[in-house]
Amino acid sequence: MRLFQYIKVNIIIVLMFTCFSATGQALSDTLSNNKKNILKEGIYVVDVAMTGSNFLTRRAVKTLKSKSKHYIKLTTTDNGTLRVQFCNEKGEVSGNNETTDYHYKTTNHFWANKMPMALNLYDVDIRYNPQNGCICKGTSVKVYGRDNKNPKGFVPFFLNRKKVVTQSSGSKSDIIKTCGNSADSFTIEIVLDFKKPFHCVISKK
Asked: 0.90 cut: is pTM over it?
């Protein structure tokens, strides 16, 4: 009987040790993978889409088909946030000259399909927590939308053209908090607080 109990106790100890070892290894692997996949500065190929926060703007973005592949550049700032900018494959960023830097033929600011404007992330930065992958607002969300002179671009009849193609973000601009983000998969959703209430969703899947 004692021999049986001895064997039983030893089996339990072995099983517990195996279980803890496996759990520890899994945790170690997870932390290791997270460390490798931390979102950091660099150039990323992303999906960019406009969304509407009310019925008219949702209808407008559906009409404009404003979704496409694009490039963003993340740069670490002095205060530890990541600055977000649209760019080309080389990381080149357009300026803010109203005459030349928004033109559809040359601009690196985002525009797609029938969009009548280029979208300039003039001063946008995010805070990224590598522990839980959460992205939230950094220190600034300033965004400009300007007429890109796209001949195929048009404004749906139910929106005011002047209020769509020339817009600047207001005080309610924000970043929608998302978690579980990494260098392999992330979502940055910007509340633009334009005269017409659009959101800009930048994602990598």
From this structure: no
What is the tens place of the pLDDT at every residue in 136-188? 999 999 999 999 999 999 998 888 888 889 999 999 999 999 999 999 999 99
CA–CA distance, 10 with 13 (Å, rounded to integer): 5
CA terminus-to-terminus distance, the chain: 59
Q: Any idea what DSSP says for residue 160?
A: -
Token duo for residue 168: 């600047």
Q: How far apart, in whole angstroms, are the C-alpha atoms of residue 61 and residue 63? A: 5
pLDDT tens for 103-124 read 999 999 999 989 999 999 999 9
Q: Is 203 helix (H, G, I), strand (E, B) or coil?
A: strand
In SS3 terms, 69-116 reads as EEEEEEEECCCCCEEEEEECCCCCCCCCCCCCCCCCCCCCCECCCCCC
C-alpha separations of 35 from 29, 32, 114, 133 in Å: 10, 5, 40, 11
Q: Which residues contact 201 (CB under 8 A, 6 or more apart)?
A: 47, 48, 49, 50, 51, 187, 188, 189, 190
Which tens digits make up the pLDDT trace of 1-47?
554 554 554 545 444 544 445 444 544 444 444 555 999 999 999 99
Report the distance separating Cα 45 and Cα 186, nearest Å.
Answer: 11
Tell me the sheet residues that pair with 87.
Answer: 71
Token pair, residue 205, equals 């899947």
